[in-house]
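User: Hi! I have a protein structure encoded as tokens and I'd like to know what sequence might fold into it. I'm fairly new to this, so please keep things simple.
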């Protein structure tokens, strides 16, 4: 078995994920409106974002009804 040091691929490096400016699905996702159970302020929260009031930090939120 040959004991030479490893030689990686000699081509150009692959494009990184940060260099491509493709929008993610979560960026275009609609924001839902929630009311805080403690202070009553209206909060716009995206999907995958933690449910927490932006004013008081309370975690119990009421989802507003959609208007169809």
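Assistant: Happy to help. Inverse folding works backwards from shape to sequence: for each of the 68 positions I chose a residue that suits the local structure. Here it is:
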């Amino acid at each position: 078995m040959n004991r030479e040091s490893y030689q990686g691929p000699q081509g150009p490096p692959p494009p990184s994920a940060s260099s491509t400016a493709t929008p993610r699905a979560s960026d275009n996702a609609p924001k839902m409106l929630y009311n805080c159970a403690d202070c009553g302020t209206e909060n716009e929260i995206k999907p995958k974002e933690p449910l927490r009031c932006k004013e008081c930090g309370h975690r119990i939120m009421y989802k507003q009804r959609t208007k169809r």
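A useful reference point when you look it over: The mean pLDDT is 81. Feel free to ask if any position seems puzzling.
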